[in-house]
Fold this protein.
Amino acid sequence: MSSPETTVTKTTDLGTLLNSIGLPAIGASLEDFLARATKGRWSAVQMLEEIARLEQVEKTRRSLQSRLQRARLGRFKPLADFDWNWPKKIERDLVERAFTLEFIRDGRSLVLLGSNGLGKTMIAKNLAHQAAIAGYSVLFTTAAELIEDLRSRSPETLRRGVARYVRPALLVIDEVGYLAYDSHAADLLYRVVDRRYERPGVRDTGPRSILLTTNLAFRDWNSVFPNATSIATLLDKLTHYADVTMIEGQSYRVHESQRAAAARRRKTRS
């Protein structure tokens, strides 16, 4: 009869083997699995069904983890922390409808336009996170990061660089208009927008959604992309199948700073 030590050793070896052949969930919980199977007197079919269930759960978990890593969202506040009453103007119905992800399924884009500190990035990151959870491939980048990445590439690698931004089901381009660029930068951004733009309704070749945030009205984009001949066409293709919503009001960050300063003053007086 095998000793307890031998049984543990064999179980460990089996767990390692299961993990090596692509069954990591059952490999990691083998002892618990065997204990439950023995106690429940499971049949061979029941054991196989439980193995399949555990592996499916693990596959789903790892797939989500991978999508979130590739999305590059970083840290962000949940939408539950968003103060809908702070902006003087916001189309709440349109924003909340975006969280159904219908715009991604339809190959439409969404532009959040408004001054700094009103939560555009917060909304964008929460939408991107929701899309990743739903199974969509997502990539979050700022306009500055995208342009710098493509600008640094050689002509031979530029196509692969552009493809990186075309591939995801949802591309988030944050902070367009925060920095000034030359006309070449507009051409690089245009390459990405153009490649993601196709006729809707054509199976497997329809448009891929862009979620873009900007603090500039479209008529002012020439101020950050001076002398760029591609701006008009870029905006035409970006907005053709897009919902554009304006958020107006005072910066919430300024409001929080002022409130914190007032609290410190009250504390000092007391």
